[in-house]
Amino acid sequence: MKKESSRKRSSRDGMLFTRQRSAVAALVLGVLTDVAVSLLCLGFYNARSCFDLDVLLRHLSIREFDFFHTLHDFALLVAVRSVFVFGGIVLRAFQKNDEKFNSRALVVFGLATISWSFLLVKILAISESPEQLGFAGLWLTVVWTVVASAWMVAVWLLVLPSTRIWPLSNASAQATAEYSPLITNDAESAAVSKETASKGGVAKHMWRLVCYCRHAIHWFLLGFVFLLIYALARVAIPKFTGEVIATIVSSKSKEEGMQRLVSAVLKMTGLVAVSSIFGGLRGGCFTYASMIVNCRMRCDLFRSLMRQEIAFYDQTKTGEITSRLTSDCQTMATTVATNLNVFMRNGVMLLGSLGFMFSMSWHLTLVTFIAVPLVGFITKVYGAYYDDLSERTQKALADANHVAEQTLSTMRTVRSFACEDKETERFEGFVGETIHINKKKSVAYMFYTWLNEGCDNAILVGVLFYGGHLVLTEKMTADNLIAFLLYQMQLGENLYNLGYVFTGLMEAVGASRKVFDYMLREPKVANDGTLKPEVEGNIEFAEVTFAYPSRLNRKVLDGISFNVNAGETVALVGPSGGGKSTCVALLEHFYNLLGGAIRLDGVDISLIEHHFFHEKIALVAQEPVLYEGTVGENILYGFYGGSAEERQRLMEAAAKKANVHDFVMQMEKGYETNCGERGVQMSGGQKQRIAIARALVRNPAVLILDEATSALDTESEHIVQEAISEWCKERKTVIVIAHRLSTVEKADKILVISGGKVIQCGRHSELIKERGKLYHKLVNRQLLGIGDADASEDSPLAPVEGVVDETEDSTSEDTGSNGQ
Hints:
alpha/beta, 28 helices, 10 strands, membrane
């Protein structure tokens, strides 16, 4: 075994070494190719446009350097590129931290942007001798420099980060690290995979955001048509402005000057009117389209949330979900639609301005673009930093929303414990975190603005200087220079707005990550059953094993098995945490099982159609939830069958069974009475009875009562219990979790659950005789409030074997405790 393991390790080491050697060889070959092609291009820098060795050798001599007539600078760029690529190989061999290596790669990207800017400066210098623009070597060198610089950036940003070039002495350790993911535990792999998917690429998220615009594509297209007309009108305005200025300056006579001035002004007036009208139409179309996108995003997200399993809500803060559903969707839709508008408007105007600028002077146009690569580099660095801060801001806002939602929805509890200041402090803490993050945003924006403004002003000074030079050398007219300056200002505004688009999209990407995570998340409990069997109410738990997803290492149910026959009333009792409510949650198909099966009339509940299943099984929880709406709407919640008259009849019948009808009819608006948010307008007992009516209205085959009568007074409980008993005679199944003796003793079967197993089963009269066992202890401790020391043959427990009298029932109500 050891020999085989050693042989496999040696094989892996050999494969790793071969791969490392191939990667290094490929990069070295790339460097040599760069040097060879660059030198070859220099040899073509002559009037004959053919290779000349003497020209090449002259470019290798520093004495022959002339900035305006030779290309020695490009030879220096070749040397710098070679040093950086070889330096990357060496650094990758000793730098194991990917994050630090990627941060150094930005320096290389900065070098490439500087080299591209230098190209423009060099072309302008060479153009001082126009005949040199016809040398083939110049353009070959320019094209190859662009390609080679892009290759150098690709090596640092794409090739080297994905290539492991450790020193050979560490080959074995690297091989182990490389193959270790094959034996990584599933939970860890899933966590890494989830994090990677969550981060995703910026381009991928942007594409998803833009794809959402297809839901309002007709409005966007109409807006684009209006935008095109608006942009073309705006682009022509500087041209006529230049004509007006030229007319004022160069007119020979007053009459001729006035005539030309009026003509130019009338044209400008028409253009301004067209741009104003179509600008308004464009804005209206894009605004309406953004609302459509926003609504679609929210609906898609809410639809996805409705599909998620209960465990998702157990593990995810409600405030975080509502934050994604409200502020994040709003940010995404508004930002994308607005920036799409800004991008298209400024993009069209930019292209139009460039056309006019090139027609006036290509020299000045190159001057204008000298700083563009540098601005692009600054924008990339700023955008990545801003993206990270935006994501952190959204998380802090989600936390603040969670605190606000949690506090405002439980204001009675907050007030009763005088925790107003504490909750305020928690909320202010998360809001303070957003302020801290936005402080960093502000500082970053300040530096970004400084650099952008600096580049803009440098370009303006450069254009004025070089444009003045062109005018003085009679290569350009003064009026064209004025028009060019106006176009340059418009171009600068367009570029600035396009930079703002990038920043805005980064904010949308930061907000979109969690939203798309929720949208694309597949629920772990699939409610995709299709069967609609005849349901009588027979329930079977067969060797059911379960642990909550947040605590997979702790089994709540461990191979539990029991049967509930149709028409039986079965009580689940046991200590807190024993698994009673978990059985109910699994019967409702809230979670997937780890093992075993739960069947309804012999059919696995996961195979039964979702809506049909929950028509046949109704749950009344210990803490009922009522929604903002009328009493009638709450009773009929989730019940859609029959006509309006039939629904009204069934609602009133269910209300009477649950002892709701009488107190509702005493209210001024009857069943139209508003329950308030979360049923705040109703008492605890009223809410519980409405919840019971909501369960009975659908005439389920199985009714689950989780401490459902705990909030009722003795008379109401007696009436409801009688209604349930009558209902059970119709061959209906009832499962009860209760700690009141009056409820438990009437059950046809009592299941005592502890430690995830059924440890006792029988009727009350049978189990109470088993002295010393758990059920007897629960009766003493929890139901009657008597400790073990008082439990003797002569204790007041004696009547428990028969029917408990009214006093004992009252005692059990007052001293009962909640177990699950």
